[in-house]
Amino acid sequence: MPATSTMHFYRFTDWGTAYSDAEAFFADLGKVYQAEIAGLAAAGCRYVQIDEVAVAILCDPVAREKVKAQGGDADRLVDLYIDALNQAVKGRPDGMTVGVHVCRGNYKGMYLSEGGYDCVAEKFFGRTDVDHFLLEFDSPRAGGFAPLRHVPKDKGVVLGLVSSKTPVLESKDLLKRRTDEAARFIEMKRLAISPQCGFASTIGGNPVTEADERAKLRLCVDAAREIWN
Questions:
Q1: Closest-CA residue to 57 (of 108, 12, 1, 17)
Q2: In degrees rounded to 5, what are phi and psi of residue 197?
Q3: Which of 5, 174, 207, 215 could potentially form a cystine with 54 if both were Cys, beta carbons 3.0 to 4.6 Å apart?
Q4: What pTM, to 2 d.p., does this model score?
Q5: Plot region of 24 (φ>0 → left; ψ -120 to 50 → alpha; else → beta)
Q6: Domain limits of the chain?
Q7: What is the chain's pLDDT, residue by residue, as a tens digit (229 residues)?
């Protein structure tokens, strides 16, 4: 599901006049999400994944400067979006797992933003009420693993180490080494690995074939079996 921030971030300086402030807007939007999640649960769904793009963009120093130039406050937006996401998943049924994917863009092998998680990590990991985070670490533009030290003890992290943007197949040794690096900041038992994003955000797809996709998924499975035995 798209994060609630998606309905605000791209026009945060001109997002409508029906509400007195963004908090009131998100209070109503949260109720819509709660109803949708309840409906999914009633249909048998036990896993919901939220796609959070705005917070990923707000990791980028260039994007933060653009927000400032438009009269906004990047840190305030991050706080606003954390609260909105928490409202959206509030009251979810017992037994339903919720993950949030911090997405940096995935259209035709391109990306929207860069920059490590450092400037948002403490508050985003610490305050977001989900079970785990799916984080993109497929290229240097995502920064290092040190921000993972802020992930609470009761939450997990899926390391997006395999790129959906290129047909080049990563090596198993690379996945093992990078997982070991991440485990310096968070317990290995709370980690998992995956592609950094889906293989196609739109009908435009990415520059990978079905065979490439299958090979990358197989790599994730084989590497995980060896890493966690």
A1: 12
A2: -155, 180
A3: 5
A4: 0.91
A5: alpha
A6: 4-228
A7: 999 999 988 777 676 678 888 899 999 999 999 999 999 999 999 999 999 999 999 999 998 999 999 889 999 999 999 999 999 999 999 999 999 999 876 654 455 666 789 999 999 999 999 999 999 998 777 889 999 999 999 999 999 999 988 899 999 999 999 999 999 999 999 999 999 988 876 666 677 889 999 999 999 999 999 999 8
